[in-house]
Amino acid sequence: MNSEIRALQPQQLWNKFADLNAVPRPSKKEERVIAFMKDFGAKLGLDTIEDEVGNVIIKKPATAGMEDRVTIVMQSHLDMVHQKNADTDFDFDTQGIEMYVEGDWVRAKGTTLGADNGLGVATIMAILESTDIAHPAIEALFTIDEETGMTGAMGLKGGLLEGGILLNLDTEEDDEIGVGCAGGIDVTATRTYKEEETPEFKIGYTITVKGLQGGHSGMDIHKGLGNANKIMNRLLFDGFENFGLRIAEIDGGSLRNAIPRESKAIVAIDAVHEAAFNSDMQIIISTIKKELKTMEPELDITIETSETPKNIMDLGVQEGVTRAIYAALNGVYRMSADITDLVETSNNIARVIIKDGNIKIGCLTRSSVESSKTDLANTLRATFELTGCEVECSGDYPGWTPNMDSSILKVLSSAYEELNGEKAHVAACHAGLECGILGTNYPDMEMISFGPTIKGAHSPDERASISSAKKYWNFVLEILKRIPKQ
Q1: CA 54 – CA 41 distance, rounded (Å)
Q2: pLDDT for residue 90
Q3: Residues with Cβ < 8 Å from 309, sequence gap 6 or more?
């Protein structure tokens, strides 16, 4: 399979991507990929260091004739989102990604591909290894844990880098030049509850929501995709209102930065309501599928009889939590008034776990405006606190304010237009790029973001365009030639 990938053009890029994807690298477990990257730099005889938090920095001198150019920082993150289909047998801790080619796309077998941000990492590796690519002095910065906390960028100390320009290779449309991004904050609601013994007259059901597209909780939040946690809560709320449904367990979603694709709940109802309950649920399922048929044609909701659970939630807590999840905003909160079609503020209800007397609800709130981010986080906090939850706001990171007058933006804009015969789309994005965080310790460094076309990031539908990778590679080489003099 990887031999097929290695034959793609440009081979320098795809070979390094294949090398990288052979190394397990889920967020928070980057030990092997850190060692891999340090070994890579050492074998090239380049100055290679690992900082206090695990970021790897590899420095390469300028090629002949480029010594008078501004030193550049080329930056990508080493970790990847680890998502897989429920029926896929795969261990992200031990296995390399299994890739294949389908038309113009490189995909993975039932898992995320790791093109986010592996193609950026592979690009930098290929340039570090090259002997015939013209470039200024390079400081290659490989950060860790971008996907689940940006702790690598947050932990990078000032003074380690000397570059005046940072090229972040983490944008996912090849006609886009990124000049700004959203910040984010994790909002986590927790509480305990008393379990009650399930009465004898009740019967058990397992409700499953699956088949949703999922996707990036920033870049895809405006698309109207289904959220498995919200869909499940809708079913549970209706079941309680009409038939006294009681909840035993819920396990919905996975990562905060991924729109939840699946949810499973174990419930109980009075046996006397069995026929009416099943009939009513099928009506609701049909309604939900009709609402989402355009965006979620593969949505699958099943309700099956199962062993009656031994215990169920305290009734008052169940009522409060289901109402809070219903009331909590999911999706777009506010569009930008300054940048056309840019989502300013949003929330993703990413994770719902209810089991063994414990409740945990995890959200990721994003915004390019700090005050709006705080406002929405407080809205969510108030919603969950009203039902007795304790709410923690953590992992706060800043956005990246656009600089439309930067010299590197002019370089990229002119290079793109000359190479492609059309203007690039200069935009801010509703994802959390590391530029805003890195800028706190390097405030004078100009920053820009770009990359190849990647679709379905953060989901098993993730795919990277082969033709776009070639276009992007040529763009990178042209940018390196045009870096301004010091």
Answers
A1: 15
A2: 96
A3: 198, 204, 248, 249, 266, 267, 268
Q: What is the pLDDT of residues 204-223, one digit of tens each?
A: 999 999 999 999 999 999 99
H or E element that contains 87: none
Establish whether 116 is a catalytic residue. Answer: no
pLDDT at 1 (0 to 100) = 53
Q: What is the largest CA-CA distance in the chain?
A: 84
Cβ neighbors of 16 (< 8 A, separation 6 or more) are 121, 122, 123, 125, 126, 129
Q: Which residues of the chain have pLDDT under 50?
A: none
**Phi/psi of residue 75, nearest 5 degrees:** -130, 135
Handedness of CA 130, 131, 133, 135 (dihedral sign): positive
**79 given a catalytic annotation:** yes
Q: What is the pTM of this model?
A: 0.75
Rg (CA), the chain: 24
356: alpha, beta or left, given left = phi > 0 and alpha = psi -120 to 50?
Answer: left
**CA–CA dist 429, 179 (Å, integer):** 8
Given the residues 139, 145, 146, 172, select the one marked as catalytic.
146
Residues 363 and 347: beta-carbon distance below 8 Å: yes
Which H or E element spans position 83? none
DSSP track, 28-73? T--HHHHHHHHHHHHHTT-EEEE-TTS-EEEEEPPPTT-TTBPPEE
**DSSP states of 114-179 as a string?**
-HHHHHHHHHHHHHHH-SS-----EEEEEES-TTTT-HHHHHPPTTS---SEEEE---S-TTEEEE
Predicted pLDDT at 149: 82
Count of residues for the chain?
486
With H, G, I as helix, E, B as strand and everything else as coil, classify residue 392.
strand
